[in-house]
Amino acid sequence: MSGIPALYDEKVQAHWPFDIQEDADLAEMQQLAHQIFFSSLTEEDLKNDAVLDSMKHDCFGIGLDLRIRCVDWGFKMEDIKNNVYMRHSRADNSVPFITAQITSELLPNYQLDIRANDTHFSQEVMNDFVKTIMAAHY
Asked: Which residues pair with 87 in a beta bridge?
């Protein structure tokens, strides 16, 4: 379950509100991850172990994820024949809905579960996705 779209794709890039630097190093992507996801945390966010862990490690995992999303993967999403299940909220203010939608449409066998008001990411969202979407297919 990832909210970061296929940033190598020109259609996705056209809707991504942040700079895309294909030659950026990991440190630069960690700074971008902090800007995107951690610059306006609430007191409630700061109680979340995952948020605290990510901040403690200078957004390493998210920065790496952003970095990977910007480079050529050596294959196209269209080549993935397995079923892919995604979930995204129209109200997500960190990752524009349209970028998730375009990413999903690059996959030949996708199901995009669209929500009106999910939070960007939480353990509750993940648990619900697994229980309602993933469990229904396995």
From this structure: 113
From CA 55, how far away is CA 95, in angstroms rounded? 19
pLDDT digits (tens, 9 = 90+) for 61-116: 989 988 887 788 888 889 999 988 888 888 887 788 999 999 999 999 998 888 88
C-beta separation of 39 from 2 below 8 A: no
Q: How far is CA 130 from CA 104, 107, 111, in A?
A: 18, 20, 14
Q: Which two tokens stand for residue 124?
A: 């509750």
Token pair 């940033």 in the structure block, residue: 7
- CB-based contact 126:95 (threshold 8 Å): no
Note the pLDDT tens digit of each residue in 10-66: 899 899 888 777 888 999 999 988 988 888 888 888 888 888 899 999 999 989 988
49 and 31 Cβ atoms separated by less than 8 Å = no
Q: Pull the structure tokens for residue 90.
A: 């129209």
| CA separation for the pair 9, 11 (Å, rounded) | 6
